[in-house]
UniProtKB/TrEMBL annotation:
Residues 47-65 have a biased composition (Basic and acidic residues). Residues 1-13, 32-45 have a biased composition (Acidic residues). Residues 1-65 are annotated as: Disordered. Pfam families: TPR_1 (PF00515), TPR_2 (PF07719). SUPFAM superfamilies: TPR-like. Keywords: Repeat, TPR repeat. It comes from Brachypodium distachyon. It comes from the Eukaryota. InterPro entries: TPR-like_helical_dom_sf, TPR_2, TPR_domain_protein, TPR_rpt. This is Uncharacterized protein. TPR repeats lie at residues 98-131, 132-165.
Length: 229
């Protein structure tokens, strides 16, 4: 089994919030407070609005990390989704989105929802193709589902990015025999099904596939079938 890091990405450093422009407080009046908030929003520049959105996304991501640390995986998923929705409007929010997708994947791994984990890792890798943690987590999910060839592909990609990665090398050493065993098993199952199908057809004529033998031509290497009583 691929060992995954037990915790999500550490939250990004929170961007500094812009200071509020001077505005009169409406004496606790809700209508006055709403007007002050609207005036504050109107006074912000586009850059300040982007920084505010990034800060809110990081806050939601940090809250997701807190829930994850407490083992509250469903709540963590919700917070990461909020961070994703906020950062979706940011032109330079790929770092937040890729981290949140990767963090959602480890939540799904903990919940045993391996298909969902794979989908989240793939989304993270679409945003950041060299994201090692997402590759490790996707490999873990593939192995859980016995998708050994896919897990091997992720480990090889890790080694392309980090040739000295011991974890990926050990995983390949373990996964390759499992993949070969599964391929052999699948081949045997396929041949058994083909044999059953052949027998169902030939049985109408009082024959079976055992009446036919494959003979290899030593000159061409091709095979021909010979009938045997």
């Amino acid at each position: 089994m691929v060992v995954i890091e037990p915790e999500p990405e550490p939250e990004c450093e929170e961007a500094a919030r812009p200071s509020s422009p001077q505005a009169s407080v409406g004496g606790g009046d809700p209508a006055g407070a709403e007007e002050d908030e609207e005036a504050f929003e109107d006074a912000l520049t586009d850059e300040q609005l982007r920084e505010k959105a990034r800060s809110q996304a990081n806050d939601a991501k940090a809250e997701g990390n807190r829930h994850f640390g407490a083992g509250e995986y469903e709540d963590a998923l919700s917070q990461y989704e909020i961070a994703l929705q906020i950062s979706a409007e940011l032109e330079s929010g790929e770092d937040i989105r890729s981290a949140c997708h990767s963090n959602r994947s480890i939540c799904f791994l903990k919940l045993g929802k391996y298909d969902e984990a794979i989908k989240e890792c793939t989304k993270a890798l679409e945003l950041n193709p060299s994201y090692l943690k997402a590759l490790v987590r996707r490999g873990e999910a593939h192995e859980k589902l016995e998708h050994y060839d896919e897990a091997i592909a992720d480990m090889k990609k890790i080694l392309e990015l980090d040739p000295s990665n011991v974890q990926a090398k050990r995983s390949l050493f373990r996964l390759e025999p499992l993949a070969a065993e599964k391929r052999e098993k699948m081949k045997e199952e396929m041949l058994a099904k083909l044999k059953d199908l052949g027998n169902s057809v030939l049985g109408r004529f009082g024959m079976s596939v055992d009446n036919f033998k494959a003979v290899k031509d030593p000159n061409t290497g091709s095979y021909s079938l010979s009938f045997q009583q």
